[in-house]
Amino acid sequence: MRTARPSALSLFPGHPPGLTIIVLTGLWEVFALFGMRTILVFYLLELGYGAGRAIEIYSLSTAAAFAVTLLGAVLADRVLGVRRAVVIGALGMAAGHLLLIWPSVLFPALGLIVLANGLFKPSLVSQIGTIYHRDDPRRDRAFLLYKAGCNAGAIFAPIICGLIGQAYGWRSAIALCGGVMCLSALIYLFGNGLIRAVEQDRGDTTGDDAAMAAGGGQKARWTLLVLIFVSGVLFWAAHGQQGGAVAIWASQSVDRGIGWAGERFTVPAAWFQSVNPIIIVLFTPLLAWIWSRRDRRADGRHELRKMAFGALLLAGSFALLVVAAGMAGQGMAAMSWLIAALVLLAVGELYFDAIGQALLVRLAPSSLTTVFISLWFLVQALGLGIAGWLGGTWETVSPAAYFLVVTGMAAVAAIVAMAAAAAMRERTPS
């Protein structure tokens, strides 16, 4: 098996330099997108929209960004090519952010951002798979590193854009997002030669296409994909509760007070949303080290077991909330329960999401890699939709009962992932 040569330009020892370009490109894209979404509602309120309408615009634009990834992936695979798609998508998002400054073109600007993001994201992510041989165990760790890099952008974007928006106005913060998206495009334009060089050095793996499915047959391939997607929908439906039910419970039923120097400080409920990206960034080096010691060769069944473990961690996260809500009753739960649950949730996401993307890239035919990545985003969109539907029942049941249902969803996601692993036969390397 031929592998890519290391380079001094790589920020990740043992990985090709192309991964550094992809991670940095994705980091600034996430910074721009998360920064814009953080301040969008406040900007809309400033423009005179009501709170309900502002939330509706925010929610629809976020969901649409996931939904159009399939269209963007088809265009990238069949018409544009992934490199051209990334560049066009990045410049389109930059233009969309800058156009948001003018209220008269608000909706066209949001539409441009949505369409450009649908073209950009699956095209960029799919290239992670192309810089490794299909059986290279570093591929799983590469998706993990990419996820951590993007979450670094997610940590700082709300803080910086929020501060600039408060100090200089929301238009200034939106302009910053447009400038940062230009930076993302420049990094990719100047660095994509490194990705190309790695691809040319990786050898021909197209012969793997016929051998990669469970048992090699098309029926087995689609059965396996259905199981993976069902597990994914259930996982994201449970995971999506952190921004809704968990956030509400944290604001209403958790004792967030901290004593310090004789004073009592109440932690804002919104701050707990930062726990997820922080834990992802902190735990990524540890998991990458563990996987590098244990994984000698990428194997679909092993990857599915990792995904099942991630779903079990998610189930454990909500099981802690069941206990905490049950013990608190009508009183206030200790903040330590919430923090412990959010840590488990974030680590479970690392196992499930990063590995899920890596597995889909391995299962995809060479001509449909970007399409398969876009399907993963569609799975997330569907899961988040179910999370929102389930959230409508929050006020009709007790928090403990609600979290118990979510625990069950995550546990079923783990069971389905294990069923997929059992259905996947060991394949012989080409």
From TrEMBL:
Pfam family for this entry, one: PTR2
Compartmental location: Cell membrane
Membrane-topology annotation of the record: Multi-pass membrane protein
InterPro entries: Dipep/tripep_permease, MFS_trans_sf, MFS_Transporters, POT_fam
Keyword terms: Cell membrane, Membrane, Peptide transport, Protein transport, Transmembrane, Transmembrane helix, Transport
Keyword Glycoprotein: no
TM regions (residue ranges): 21-45, 57-76, 109-132, 144-167, 173-195, 222-239, 270-291, 307-328, 334-356, 368-390, 402-424
Classification via Gene3D superfamilies: MFS general substrate transporter like domains
Primary localization: membrane
Highest taxon listed in the record's lineage: Bacteria
Keyword Transmembrane helix appears in the UniProt entry: yes
Protein name listed in UniProt: Peptide MFS transporter
